[in-house]
Amino acid sequence: MNLLLVVAGKKSKPARQKNVIPGFGLTMGFTLFYMSMLILIPLGGLVLFTTSMGWEGFWQSVTDPRVVASLRLSFGASLLAALLNAFFGLIVAWVLVRYTFPLKRVVDALVDLPFALPTAVSGIALVTIYSQNGVIGRYIEPLGFQVAFTWVGIVIALTLIGLPFVVRTVQPALEDLEKELEEAAASLGASRWQTFKRVIFPAIQPSLLTGFAMALARAIGEYGSVIFIAGNMPYITEIAPLLIVIKLEQFDYTGATAIAVVMLIAAFLILLFINLIQWWSRRYTDEN
Amino acid sequence: MSGTVTLQSNKTNTVTRTESTTESPVIRWLLIGTALLFLLFFLILPLIIVFQEAFAGGINLFFQALTDPDALAAIRLTLFTAAIVVPVNIIFGICAAWAISKFRFKGKSVLITLIDLPFAVSPVIAGLIFILIFGSRGWLGPWFLSHGIQIIFATPGIVIATLFVTFPFVARELIPLMQAQGTEEEQAARVLGASGWQTFFRVTLPNIKWGLIYGIILCNARAMGEFGAVSVVSGHIRGYTNTMPLHVEILYNEYNFTAAFAIASLLALLALVTLMVKSIAEMKVSGGQTTTEL
To answer: Which of A160, B10, B33, B141 is the most buried (most CB within 10 A)?
Structure first.
């Protein structure tokens, strides 16, 4: 490096080393150009279109009873699915990190399946399982439980879609946990449950919340896996993304955009929440 | 201590635990049972059903469904879309990761957040955005149509929507990996006289190989499997603008279950191959650098 400083010339300030790696202009230029054309300008156009419809038009579209029902269903079912994922995802992560059992590697790899499996495929598989003649449906429908074409089916589809998030965020946090902390807790007389509640859980809480928020964000926007099992009855089992599609098919661009804006605001709030958690947990770990 | 733990992070946990820092066998097996049952219902059962239904009508019906002209057209369109989308997003991913990891500039964290933006946007909304722009009643749509170029309800729209939803995949895998690797090796190569391209191909590329492969297969899986965004812009014209996932939907809605599951089984197979390559890539990238988000 010293050699470089000499070569770099007399006038350059020693505090600012010249970076010898080339390509900043080219790579940065292409990155910004491509991102602007594909993501930023189109998204900006959506915002512009929203402002052009005016507050009145927006409010009218959003407070339409059918829209309200679909948004309530989407947010409610997504919240339930994310909570299910937080609970079971924590157990799955725990089991994968702490215990050994047959085929563990295969199980670990399979957790990512919802990322790789097209949503339409999981959609038709789920409805086949839970419909009247399905492997599970045929046993639970006579008992009075209907899953397919009800909100329960929607929650199941959304749980499948969000499954990897909690597992994959909690896993590294559990792996980084130092054994000594638990030994200390045990030697001070804490039971296993107390150690979990007071020592382990606070340490993995930020990653659990992050995973929960990611699963929630994904579930709110999900379309493909839900529409097959949902039944899609207006006011009852019609999710917000489906209503966007229906309004687009009727060339009701304003109505479709209004729903999209509500969903986008929710998504960005969740994104902000995730960033806040990460900032908070970094500060927390720095203090200790 | 913490160093050795992170190195083995992806292998089986070899930290020996005494009785005071683990649970009783009953609770242990109860938790393992709960976890496996949960995964059985939500992952393994749907996967089994796909293959079982695909072959429910026998092997002949399965191949008949796959060689149907509309099915072949859907397979061709899906491969065509992926063949454009994946290389473009590879180039973007490498450029973005290079600019972010090898240089210092203001607003870097904002740029990283912006790259993740498509993950926060519902696929249906991604489709909606491009209808607003290129649709027959959109801003640019009428101009393109008057010049004989149809984007929405045609292949270009499908490609653009797929580009949007798969935008972050490669960049997301490469950025943390290349940031962790630093710039020393590239600087050494340059000082020793290598050109910029030589530095990239001889030094950087071998270092990021597995992270790149992982990003590519994830991008590819999503490109071939995308449903929501493509569904909005495609128009569902059989034999012309139907991708494989859309063809699955059409067949299913026509109660042609065997054919629907036959196509679906191809996509499920792709997903399994993706997971296999991912596991290999993770083993090769020691220390588990790869992030697994969406």
So the answer is: A160
* Whether the Cβ atoms of residue B164 and residue B226 lie closer than 8 Å to each other: no
Q: Are residues B115 and B208 in the same domain?
A: yes
In this structure, are B161 and B272 located in the same domain?
yes
> Could you tell me the CA-to-CA distances from B221 to A114, B18, B156, B225, B265 in Å, in that order?
11, 43, 19, 6, 14
Any CB–CB contact under 8 A between A184 and chain B? no
Give me the residue from A24, A30, A242 closest to B103, CB to CB: A24
Look at residue A231 in the predicted model and tell me its pLDDT.
86
Could you give the CA distance from residue A95 to residue A269 in angstroms, rounded to a whole number? 32
Q: Which has the minimum average pLDDT: A38-47, B16-25, B45-54?
A: B16-25
Are B140 and B122 contained in the same domain? yes
Cβ atoms of B217 and B287 within 8 Å: the answer is no
Query: Looking at the structure, do residues B41 and B76 belong to the same domain, yes or no?
Result: no
Residues B246 and B195 placed together within one structural domain of the fold: yes
Mean predicted confidence (pLDDT) in B110-139: 91
Whether domain A85-238 has CATH 1.10.760.10: the reply is: no
Domain that holds residue B275: 58-284
State whether B235 and B189 are in the same domain.
Answer: yes
pLDDT in tens, B217-268: 999 999 999 999 999 999 888 888 999 999 999 999 999 999 999 999 999 9
* 8 Å CB contact between A204 and A86: no
Identify whether residues B134 and B240 lie together within a single domain.
Answer: yes
User: Under DSSP, is residue A64 helix (H, G, I), strand (E, B) or coil?
Assistant: coil
Whether B21 and A168 lie within 8 Å, measured CB to CB = no
* CATH number for the domain harbouring residue B73: 1.10.3720.10
Q: Is residue B200 part of a domain?
A: yes
Which amino acid type is present at position A69?
Answer: A
Round the average pLDDT of chain A to a whole number and report it.
Answer: 88
What residues contact residue B227 under an 8 Å CB cut-off, 6+ apart?
Answer: A118, A119, A120, A223, A224, B123, B245, B246, B249
The minimal CB distance from A183 to the residues B21, B47, B224 is found for B21
**CA closest to A156 among chain B residues:** B42
Query: Is A116 in CB contact (< 8 Å) with chain B?
Result: yes
As a whole number of angstroms, the distance between CA B166 and CA B289 comes to 21
Domain count, chain B: 2
Shared-domain flag, residues B162 and B251:
yes
Q: Where are the domains of chain A?
A: 85-238
Give CA–CA dist A64/B171, Å, rounded: 40
| B103/A28 CB distance under 8 A | yes
Interchain contact A21–B (C-beta under 8 A)? yes
How far apart are alpha carbons A92 and A80 in whole angstroms?
18
Q: What pLDDT is attached to residue B292?
A: 44
How many other C-beta atoms lie within 10 A of the C-beta of residue A251?
13
Cross-chain residue pair A128–B49, CB shorter than 8 Å = yes
Rounded Cα distance, A23 and A27, in Å = 6
* C-alpha–C-alpha distance, residues B291 and B90, integer Å: 17
Q: ∠ CA(B235), CA(A115), CA(A245), 5° rounding?
A: 25
